[in-house]
Amino acid sequence: METYDIAVIGMGPGGGHVAETLAESGLAVLGVDHLLVGGECPYWGCIPSKMMVRAADLLAEAGRVPSLAGTTGEVIPDWSIVARRIREEATDTWDDTAAVERFTGKGGTFVRGTGRLTGPGRIEVDGVPYALTRGVVVNTGTSASVPPIEGIDTVEYWTNRDIVEAEELPASVIVLGGGAIGSELSQVMARFGVRVTIVEAADHLLGVEDPEAGEALKEVLEAEGVTVHLGVRARRVERDDDGVAVVIGPGRVVTAERLLVATGRRADPAAAGLASVGVPDDARFAPIDDHCRVTDGVWAIGDVTGKGAFTHVSMYQANIVIRDVLGEEGPPASYHALPRVTFTDPEVGAVGMTERQAREALPHVRVGSVQIPGTTRGWIHRGEGFIKVVEDAESGVLVGATAMGPSGGEVLGALAVAVHARIPVDTLRSMIYAYPTFHRGIEAALASLR
Ligand SMILES: Cc1cc2nc3c(=O)[nH]c(=O)nc-3n(C[C@H](O)[C@H](O)[C@H](O)COP(=O)(O)OP(=O)(O)OC[C@H]3O[C@@H](n4cnc5c(N)ncnc54)[C@H](O)[C@@H]3O)c2cc1C
Q1: Dmax of the chain from CA atoms?
Q2: Which residues form ligand 1's pocket by a CB distance below 6 Å?
Q3: Domain membership of residue 311 as a residue range
Q4: What is the pLDDT of residues 402-449, one digit of tens each?
């Protein structure tokens, strides 16, 4: 049986980083992936979707020229440019040769196949056993979760993978799910001329964030021609002459050429063989401690841990595992300042707790906010959105914040530092905020804390 120091099952952003770094440090590392080294983010997630967002934002920006700057020539959206960029610049036509060579160039061994733990220090890849002297890192990610709606299998629905690979957009689409992915993709498609209908079961978009953000985003999307149905569930999916019909209530049917399912992501810890080290078969996520250990010699990182389905979480956890394997000192994992950005226009950046979470967890909470149009830069820019800060009034530190607005994800940086480092609100109030920036709105939001 072949023996290595460490095996990494699933080479997503975090797994790839662990595998490369440990191989570089001289360990014998076996990297395993049944698809593409790099995972969802570069091939079907963050990077291609943000290429779409960049293109769609340019179209919207061009539309703002007449009211602010003059006359443009005719702007004709052309999806083939986006599709080509994704194919050629982002994904190398979904070819991971460069990523595999980067890993093997550092001394790692790569096996393409499906891996699973079979016990402490043991894995199988497509039935071939391997022994590991130091352990196994599980980074198997998530896949699109498709709800069991009656009839859904009778239509060719899209997930994020299909839209990322699409050479052409449909004339119309129903998007099931108004979370971050569904909202970003809806706005992109609408800006490329697609008639978009969102069907969302929750009563606001971006369900995990402060409701104000979802409500403001709904207005923005509707102003761009997107139809948004909130608080309704898709009850049945049928084929239709135009493509797809989705029944959303008695006598209520929406139709479109395509259906895009964006109803969340599903981890499958059982498929990774985690039951062989004591994880219950029905666990939704891989349970980890603050060193990302499932048990001695087994670590899990990334979406499969349920700590936040973001590339930055996967990379953060990867660094913790690298230190743990190499026996280096370092802080344990903490998720109290988890940043999240939805790359709609305006962007929605958020960190830490929402107001509701804070009120449920803490006895005394104060909240302050400012509307972006009411700030100098927001008014000049004709921006929309708000900055909201949530304070634990007993300790006098921010425990959460939302920055919705132009460059909201960048404004978030300052708020993330404040929440992460538990900087006293008094200190934040004594700072000088550059004029006229979007982040200067933080000062106004802090001033309104009550
Ligand atoms: C449309 C979209 C947009 C997104 N945008 C952002 C964004 O803007 N910012 C952000 O931070 N995050 C974003 N994400 C989330 C981000 O892609 C993930 O959080 C990120 O990829 C980290 O995931 P991971 O490391 O857990 O593994 P993944 O990237 O999911 O990779 C897991 C890897 O494991 C492999 N694998 C799975 N099971 C096995 C097995 N048994 N054997 C071998 N190999 C296996 C898979 O083939 C895959 O390569 C987006 C996701 C989507 C879908």
Answers
A1: 71
A2: 9-14, 32-36, 39-41, 45-46, 49-50, 114-116, 139-142, 160, 181, 271-272, 302-304, 309-312, 314, 343
A3: 2-38+96-143+266-326
A4: 999 999 999 999 999 999 999 999 999 999 999 999 999 999 999 999
